[in-house]
């Protein structure tokens, strides 16, 4: 693992955001290759005066050149006292009692302690969507559970009200004012997406707090010291709080420092005596901070006026851009040089990758990478809004630099407008291979807390379904512009996107069954091919599905369906059950619908299954085995084909044959023998022949079955298969249930072929089949050669396991190449169980239960789900 913060290091490297900057001067950064970048981030407002501002560097050097002591706690340093005096003089209202900290977050911690000491109360009120830092107290005041829940935050005593809503604040203070020590708020919610407080809000909040005896704390760690075009953002509103917090810009981009500044009336001596910090208020940081104040006041505040003018110009240019591209940009917000743009949500129309990035918190991270690598602009996302791109340059920026940055954002809009999405992702294909820390996926590292859709109505079930890429063609099919990539670049994209992990593809707003039941759900995706899924380690597999389950549960899903190879690599879901959400592979309904499709295809061709030879390829898999059990009573002959590359395939095939025989014995025992198909009749004949050889009579049939009926376990049904095969041989009776690994020899005389393997390649070609054969291909990716339908028009090849669903709109987006109203059996089973309100595990493992399959089939009929016509699903 990387020595420095492996998770963040990997995230930056994988997103193309890993640069080694060797020089910073003004608003320009230069990397190790000599490439220059325009800094429109300022390290989140820290580098407000540009990199290595000469006067700030000189202030720092003056301390060291004079050999002044940098650390003199508990004594008060010269620069410390000087900076405190300057802050008293420039802050609004009666503010003037300062303690210094090492960061903005520590300033928040100090303010919380001071407010509690002053009021004797513990409650702290903050706003939803606010951001106040990542130490435990500051984190508890931050209105975003994503940053809190894993760290035991919020600690008791913290509550939240909507930002900008004075009525909500008044109601809360009226109800619980006696317990509330302070209300902390940002004049501009930076990490919430550069949201300025509405007119009258800040002054009104102060008035309400003072009436309730609570302390009004303004967090100006990011907005303070000129950033918004005034010395302090609260001055725009003519408001002066009880406590003002500073940080970021106070250190001039050279030293970490924060400040908690209180009015004399708010100051508390117990706090002053008990609160201290080893490094806070050191001479180096305070010397720089003192010079920062000088720069802001110089020439009667000329620099702050410049920020105001440039901020207005920036917002004007961005507003023009929004007017030209309203379908790309949702909003432009900010104050001064603390601004940015909010992108519209991408639903995946025209680009699966844009929709996936939009839903998974990756959008502005990836767009920042595009701006960095292709336009050489440094910027970043905000923390609490995954669609907002911040534009926060140093105060030294001019119109030309603003034009350069806005033109770069315009290039994003133009690419989206032209649907040239590949241009926005191209830089990622140049990212060198980066070792991924075990269990870490980009989608987990970047997911933001956003309410993406209204919560389910009471009584409605909620499902999630996990899909993946099926074959190479999917990359271009769901992202048409990626067809402009060279084959080499497309391959590099395939390798890059596989590192993302599970995320949200789209929301399915409503599914209604024929009896009026309703549900809604989420389509999740893991952007990997089957072979990539098969190659991941066991621990990575578990991490991937923990992430998928977490995504599903966060969105209220009560059941998670596993599409395609997600079922294969979890052993039919066995490896991931018991994690607080029901799991289904959907294999039962897939099998039931495949069988119904075969029966319909045979009827449509005027045939009788009892006269036909059925070959099941992939008979040892969950669907292949289930279909074998369901079709065995109906067909003339059955051949079970296993994988010749697996050493235990012959044994596993014989186990399935034993399962078939066990089913036949049960049917005979239940008195259904007279109406049974050829396989059951052959079993009766073999048993009766054996009884005759032993001197018994046919009347001993039931007794023989009673004595030889095995438990439903592989080792026992294996013995049954061997016993009955010996009896067939002894009676010189034809073996109607064969098992083999000879694929070509088996399908050569097949009337019906069912393909249900976990192979990711074609297994059957035009030359392999007899005339007028029927092929039901349940496998995804397809096990049928692409040219088979065109080369053999006499052969009916159709996708099996597909379901026609009533009123099912937009459930699979472009990820399924299926007729309208038709979907995959595994997805349909997931939806069915949600409609039924059955949130228990289903279709788990390789040995699916016939009774469970019958239950799922009955649910399909109840809710109006039916097999998709083989002709409709015919491959051409």
TrEMBL record:
Its cofactor is pyridoxal 5'-phosphate. GO terms for molecular function: identical protein binding; pyridoxal phosphate binding; transaminase activity. It holds the Pfam family Aminotran_3. Keywords: Aminotransferase, Pyridoxal phosphate, Transferase. This is Quinate/shikimate 5-dehydrogenase/glutamyl-tRNA reductase domain-containing protein. It comes from marine sediment metagenome.
